[in-house]
Amino acid sequence: MAEKESSPGGQKMYIPISLLWLVSIPLLSSVNSLPTPRGTLITCGASNAIASGDLRYVPDDGFTKVGNKATISAPNVMPILRNLRFFPDKSARKYCYAVPVVKGGKYLVRTSYYYGGFDGGTTPPVFDQIIDGTMWGTVNTTDDYSNGLTSYYELVIAAMGKFMSVCLARNSATVSDPFISLLEVEYLDESVYNSTDFKTYALGTVSRAIFGDTNSTISYPEDQYNRYWHPFKDENPTVESKSGVKMLSFWNMPPVRAFSSALTTSRGKNLKVKWPQGSLPESLYYISLYFQDSRTESPYSWRVFDIWVNGKKFYSNLNVTADGVSVFAAQWPLFGQTEIEMTPGDGIPVGPLINAGEVLQLLPLGGRTHTRDVMAMDDLTQTLDKLPSDWYGDPCLPKNHSWTGVTCSYGKLVRILALNFTGMGLSGSLPSSLGNLTSLTHL
């Protein structure tokens, strides 16, 4: 069964597994006022900082040392998407950005892609995406680009060190150079998605929706973390809320406008909503659903109903008032088309309703190379010149994307076994910390 939020705080729950999910967004921006998200907003390939509404995106030169810049000449493209960085070196096992973070901090990481025919082609390349030592998934923006849309991928993950690496890599389907338009790494407060064991898993966004709303996507500043909430409307009746909610009453800090509208039905009827759209792979998911009684606040503005997800009871006798309420589960099995059904309690004078929802799929983390080995290799990159273009990020992980010339063991601890610099054209000196590679058998 799901659990109900009462007030922000720590509460233990479940966990799933995942590949990332691609979401489409129109090429437009948003406005207005909350504190600027804490973190780093990067416009890749740009030469100068670019403002987008109240947000400021900085050039990527200080975050990566590989790849080339390109400018898109297509009309009506947002300024932050007019530049990109692409990676032509076919010999490299990965191409990485390194973004400073607070170790142990929780971050929303979003990569965005708009192809724009930068390489003279008509079809975007397909390639992989990696975060630290974890294979995030495959980037395929072909359908979105053909419909004039940009694409983004989003992950909630905890920082394992003082830097977080976000990398691209070629795969068997890659026929042209991988590229990236935007990289956003934004700090999340402790209460947000706090039921997840972030030492073991990350959360990949599947869908974040505001029900009954036909206006534009919600982002910053209405959402202080710059999450995207997309309008969702089906054949069910809609209703507007007569009172507001207090965002701080909810652990995940949803924007106030997420409660401004709802899908509903008449008295005595079940409310059925098929969402998220599309078929989901069989896995476990984090689900959070948001509700608020739409009537003017009074002693009588409440409604009670049960919630079912794909025929399995999710929550019993939920009492929804004008103050708003959220119920969530962090390890819920889904497969195929998802249907959320709300069944009213006996004698309840109004039908069920639902305002907003989030579904995120859990991605098991791929681990990390032994800290002592990582530090020694970082020192090595500081004392050598003409480094291979893939000598950034985790030196051993993911398994098929270790640094060129580095051989690793993949037992309980991931250790460096051998370094082979033959034919690499390196120059410089070897740091004394290389002696900390205690599993090294060949140099």
UniProtKB/TrEMBL annotation:
Compartment list: Membrane
Coiled coil segments of this chain: none
Pfam families in alphabetical order: Malectin_like
GO annotations of cellular component type: membrane
Domain Malectin-like positions: 42-360
Keywords of this entry: Membrane, Signal, Transmembrane, Transmembrane helix
The keyword Nucleotide-binding is annotated on this UniProt entry: no
Membrane topology: Single-pass membrane protein
Signal peptide positions on this chain: 1-33
UniProt name for this protein: Malectin-like domain-containing protein
